[in-house]
Design goal:
Helix 13 packs across helix 17 (470-478). A hairpin with a 2-residue loop joins strand 13 and strand 14 (414-420). This protein is α+β, with helices and mostly antiparallel strands. It has 17 helices and 20 strands. The chain folds into two domains: 10-56 and 72-230 and 360-383, no CATH class; 234-340 and 405-521, Gamma-glutamyltranspeptidase, small (S) subunit (Glutamine Phosphoribosylpyrophosphate, subunit 1, domain 1, 4-Layer Sandwich), CATH 3.60.20.40.
Length: 522
C-alpha cells in the first residue's frame, strides 16, 4: 500500500517538487512542447514558488534523452567561485548568510540553453508561467511558510529579502499571496533577450552593482566568463540496464560506484528491507563516499576522471573491502595517482526524457536578494573545502563539488527509468535505494519512493525511518551500527520523483510524500 496512487498516462508525465510547477509543465506538453519545454517551464516555476529550495541565482544540472538521436546529453549549469575570492577571508569558517557566499549563478544559462537547444515552444513561452507567478503572485505553501518562519532570522538580516518576502511586516502564512515584481522583470528581460542580458548585458551590470553593495565578489568578468558545461555523461551497466549519471562537478559518480560495487553482490537473495541488505548497501555507500572525499574536484583544476572509480579492477578492490561489521572510518581506495534542492522528471509521448535538479544549496541559499533584480543568491561557496590539500579546496574561478545529480536508466537504447531526489548528501544514498528497489526488486515507482529509508552521515551512526521494524533495527545494531531513529517520513532523506517507461509504452510516475512534490500526466 502507498499513500498516493501511481500516476499512469500515455502521452507524458511531469513529476516535480511543487504542484504548480507540475501543472505548468504538463500544460507545456499539452500545447505541443516536448519534455525539455516542460522541464524548463517546471524548473522556472520552481525558481519562483520554491525560493527555500531553488532560485535563478542558483544552479541546474540535467540529463536529456533525445528520442531521435537516442543519445543522452549532460548539462552542468554550475558557476565558479569569483576569481578575486581569497580563502583567507574564511579562516574562521563560512558565515551563515551574505553575498560573499555566492558562486556565479549557472541556472539562467542552463535553462536558456536547454530551451534553445532542445525545446520546441521557445524561451518566452517556457518562462511565461514563472513570470506570471512572479508578477501576479501565488499562494504560499505550508512548506514555504514553515521555511520562512524557520529561516526568518537569516532572512531578516537582508533588507531586500525582508521587503520582498515580508511586505506585511511579517513572513507570509500558508495561503497568503506572494508577489516578486523585480524577479518578474528580470525573467521578462531573459525571455526577451536570452541569457546574455544577465551574463554580458544590462541585467548583469545591475546584478554586479547590487552584489557589490551587499558584500559579494562576483564581477562582470566572472559573469562574462560563464558558460554551461556539456561534459560527456558517465554510465555503467547494471543488471543488464545502462545507468547514466551526471558527470563532475556533480557527485553522480558516487551512485554509479555504489551500483558497480553492488553489481557483484547478490542483493536479490536478500529480503527487501532486511538488515543484511541495508548493511551491505550502507557499507557500499561508505566506500564510495570515501573515494569522493579523496579524489573528487573540478576537473578544470584538478586531475580527476570519475571513470577510474568505475573501472573493473578498482571496483573489485572496493568490493573486497566491504566489511561484515559497521565501520567507524572508511579509507579511500588507491587510484595510484599523484543542501536545499528540488528535482523533476519529465517524459513525453515521443520518447524524450529529462532528469533535472536545481538548487540554491542551503535553505534560501545565502538568504540575500540582489537589490533591484529579485534574484536570490546561492551560498554554494560553502560547498568548498577550506583545507588547501583537498581536491575540492576553495580557489577563485573554480567550481565546488556538487551533491546535485540526476539519473536516467536505459534499457537498450530507450529510457526505462528517470529519477532523482534533493537532499544534499542523502541524494546518492536515496538514489541508490531507489535503483535497487526499481531494478533488483522490480517495484512500482510510487512504492519504491515510499519504502522506508536509511541515511548515513559519518561513523557507525545509521539513521533509519521509524517505519523500519524493530527487529531490523536490532539486527543492524548487532552488525555494529548505532541506530538513530528518524520520523516515519523523514525529509532529510530527500523528496524523490520518478518515472518508469513500461514495456507496453505507457508511463508510470511517482512523487515523494516526504516533501510537497506531485506527479501528473495526460
Amino acid at each position: 500500500m502507498t499513500t498516493r496512487p501511481t500516476v499512469r498516462a500515455a502521452n507524458g508525465i511531469v513529476a516535480s517538487g511543487h504542484h504548480l510547477a507540475t501543472s505548468a509543465g504538463l500544460a507545456a506538453l499539452r500545447e505541443g512542447g516536448n519534455a525539455v519545454d516542460a522541464a524548463v517551464t517546471a524548473a522556472a516555476v520552481c525558481g519562483v514558488v520554491m525560493p527555500h529550495r531553488t532560485s535563478f541565482g542558483g544552479d541546474v544540472f540535467a540529463l536529456v534523452y533525445d528520442a531521435r538521436s537516442r543519445e543522452v546529453s549532460a548539462y552542468n549549469g554550475s558557476g565558479a567561485a569569483p576569481r578575486s575570492i581569497d580563502r583567507e577571508l574564511f579562516r574562521a569558517g563560512f558565515p551563515t548568510q551574505g553575498g560573499a557566499l555566492a558562486t556565479v549563478p549557472g541556472a539562467i544559462a542552463a535553462l536558456v540553453d536547454l530551451a534553445n537547444e532542445h525545446g520546441r515552444l521557445g524561451l518566452d513561452r517556457d518562462l511565461a508561467p514563472a513570470i506570471a507567478y512572479a508578477e501576479g503572485g501565488f499562494p504560499v505553501s505550508d512548506v514555504l511558510a514553515e521555511g520562512m518562519a524557520e529561516e526568518g532570522e537569516r532572512l531578516a538580516l537582508d533588507p531586500e529579502a525582508t521587503r520582498i518576502f515580508g511586505p506585511r511586516g511579517r513572513w507570509p502564512q500558508a495561503g497568503e499571496m506572494l508577489q516578486q515584481p523585480d524577479l518578474a522583470a528580470s525573467l521578462r528581460a531573459i525571455a526577451r533577450d536570452g541569457a546574455d542580458v544577465f551574463y554580458r548585458g544590462d541585467l548583469g551590470a545591475r546584478f554586479v552593482e547590487g552584489i557589490a553593495a551587499i558584500g559579494g565578489a562576483i564581477d562582470r568578468g566572472d559573469l562574462s566568463a560563464h558558460r554551461t558545461d556539456h561534459p560527456e555523461a558517465i554510465a555503467i551497466e547494471y543488471r543488464g540496464l545502462r545507468v547514466i549519471g551526471q558527470p563532475p562537478v556533480s557527485q553522480g559518480h558516487i551512485l554509479l560506484e555504489e551500483l558497480a560495487i553492488a553489481e557483484g553482490l547478490d542483493l536479490r537473495a536478500m529480503e527487501w528491507g532486511s538488515a543484511d541488505l541495508v548493511h551491505q548497501m550502507v557499507e557500499t555507500k561508505k566506500l564510495a563516499f570515501a573515494d569522493r572525499d579523496a579524489f573528487a574536484g573540478d576537473p578544470r583544476h584538478v586531475e580527476f576522471d570519475p571513470r577510474r572509480l568505475l573501472a573493473g579492477e578498482f571496483v573489485a578492490s572496493r568490493r573486497r573491502a566491504l566489511a561484515g561489521k559497521a565501520t567507524e572510518r572508511t579509507e579511500a581506495g588507491s587510484l595510484m595517482t599523484p543542501a536545499d534542492t528540488t528535482y523533476l522528471a519529465v517524459v513525453d509521448r515521443d520518447g524524450n526524457a529529462v532528469s533535472l535538479i536545481e538548487s540554491v544549496f542551503s535553505a534560501f541559499g545565502a538568504a540575500v536578494i540582489v537589490p533591484g533584480t529579485g534574484l536570490l543568491l546561492n551560498n554554494r561557496l560553502t560547498g568548498f573545502a577550506l583545507d588547501a590539500r583537498s581536491p575540492n579546496a576553495l580557489v577563485g574561478g573554480k567550481r565546488p563539488v556538487h551533491t546535485l545529480n540526476t539519473v536516467i536508466v536505459l534499457d537498450g537504447s530507450a529510457p526505462r527509468f528517470v529519477f532523482g531526489t534533493p537532499g544534499r548528501h542523502a541524494q546518492v544514498q536515496t538514489n541508490f535505494q531507489l535503483a535497487v528497489a526499481l531494478i533488483d526488486f522490480g517495484m512500482d515507482v510510487q512504492r519504491a519512493i515510499e519504502e522506508p529509508r536509511w541515511f548515513h552521515e559519518s561513523g557507525r551512526t545509521l539513521k533509519v525511518e521509524r517505519r523500519y521494524p524493530e527487529a531490523v533495527r536490532r539486527a543492524l545494531a548487532t552488525k555494529g551500527h548505532e541506530i538513530a531513529v528518524l520520523d516515519d517520513w523523514a525529509a532529510v532523506t530527500g523528496g524523490a520523483q520518478a518515472i518508469a517507461i513500461e514495456p507496453n509504452g505507457a508511463f508510470a510516475g511517482g512523487a515523494d510524500p516526504r516533501r510537497e512534490g506531485q506527479a501528473a500526466g495526460y
